[in-house]
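Bumping with the actual sequence this time:
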Amino acid sequence: MPTRRNLLADAVDFARESLLALRETAVGEYLGLTYEDEVDGVAVAATHRFAATLPGYRGWQWAVVVAAAPDSDRVTVSESALLPGPEALTAPEWVPWERRVRPGDLAPGDLLAPTDHDDRLEPGYVATGDPEVDDVADELGLGRSQVLSREGRTAAAQRWYEGDYGPASDMARAAASTCGLCGFYLPLAGALHAGFGVCGNEYSADGRVVSAEYGCGAHSDTTLPTGAGSPAYAAYDDAAVEVVDVARPAEAPAPLDDKLTAGDGEAEPVDAEQSGTEQQASADDTAERDGAETPEGE
């Protein structure tokens, strides 16, 4: 009698036939098995996996769970399912509708109401009906039905402190001073007064909430370096003229291509003045030879 583990492992054809019996025709190659439950150290179930060849289900697998009772010589099918494999294309993790809107998604004309029991808000001042009291409350900023709760203020402060206008940003690390000491810094009122404000410098973070520990190069106490020229490079006078002695190059010999060799059928070019001189010398030599060859008395 085979062992239970061998009995489960040998049930490959049985598992495939169970899928075909369910009219699952897209059953591909066998991928392997995994032993499941164990009783006293002995597996009582195993999952056989087959590649799924369904269109659009690349990487998915058919899983068939077979089981064998103790002292049994046959297996039964517990369940079968189509499951994603390690390389399967699956849908992204479900995100509830109320959490799908991300910062920056709000566009002109969109409406985004706070959720019920929003932890960021808490009840504000409730009108009393007395005009004098309510008018004073409005002047003090107490005329809102909801205000930021402690959790809401803490979350906002954390975002601002860790954002682009916090002390850990590249701009702040390169600055010589902080916004808390800058004349363009407009501190916030209320609980966040000590830590945050609004920048009023149009050449920097104008209109943005900045940390008091943030800083930039446009600080109100910034002074330019003194001295001539650029602090990083020596001055360069582009109007100066530098006189340099350059040796005159030697005359290059005439190219060999300009000289024709004998037998080419063409005369070599000759300078006009030189040609005239050579012709006169040739005529004189001819006259002297003629005189020398004439016999005396003729």
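The tokens above came from a reply further down the thread. The longest strand covers residues 27-35.
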